[in-house]
């Protein structure tokens, strides 16, 4: 079973004062929050932020080894968008025992322009165990 969430944040070059813009989206047991600097200044190379992923087992059981993929894109293309950042990981035994995942990742990329429509996606592949009993 796969669950996914996607969110969109826009940022533009405005001033040198550091502020942030944030957005959250959820789908079933998955919630993601992307927080990024809302300014790009001339002569600064990097845009920074954080991506937080929270997974519970309200709807589906969480198992060690479940795969999680995280991506941040620039919504700049007609046919495809530019990948700015990506990371994948597996749910640990400790997270399985706690019945929850709550991780925050530093997100940054080199700024080439002064305007971005940034969005994040998260995909979780939860292992579904089916127990079959044979009756005699």
Provide keyphrases for this structure.
disordered C terminus; 136 residues; elongated; 4-stranded antiparallel beta sheet; mainly beta; 1 helix
Structure description:
Helix content is 4%, strand content 57%. It is mostly beta strands and 136 residues long. It has a 4-stranded antiparallel sheet with strand order 1-8-5-6, with no helix packed on it. β2 and β3 form a beta hairpin. The chain starts with a strand and ends in an 11-residue tail after the last strand.
Summarize it.
The protein is mainly beta and 136 residues long. Helix content is 4%, strand content 57%.
Number of strands: 8
Task: Tell me the series of helices and strands, N- to C-terminal.
Answer: EEEEEEHEE
* DSSP helical segment count: 1
Q: How are the strands of the largest sheet arranged?
A: 1-8-5-6
Strand proportion: over 45%
Mind describing the biggest β-sheet?
A: 4 strands, antiparallel
Quote the average pLDDT.
Answer: 75
Radius of gyration: 18 Å
Q: By helix and strand content, what is the structural category? A: mainly beta
Distance between the termini: 31 Å
Low-confidence region ranges: 7-17, 129-136
- What level of helicity do the residues show? under 10%
The general outline is elongated
């Amino acid at each position: 079973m796969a669950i996914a969430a996607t969110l969109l944040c826009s940022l533009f070059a405005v001033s040198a004062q550091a502020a942030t813009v944030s957005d959250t989206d959820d789908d079933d047991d998955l919630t993601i929050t992307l927080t990024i600097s809302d300014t790009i200044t001339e002569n600064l190379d990097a845009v920074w932020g954080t991506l937080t992923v929270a997974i519970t087992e309200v709807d589906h059981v969480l198992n060690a080894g479940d795969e999680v993929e995280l991506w941040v894109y620039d919504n700049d293309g007609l046919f495809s968008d530019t990948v700015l950042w990506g990371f994948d990981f597996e749910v640990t035994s400790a997270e399985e025992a706690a019945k929850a995942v709550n991780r925050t990742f530093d997100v940054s990329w080199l700024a080439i322009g002064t305007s971005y429509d940034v969005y994040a996606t998260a995909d979780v592949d939860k292992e579904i165990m089916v127990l079959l009993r044979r009756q005699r």
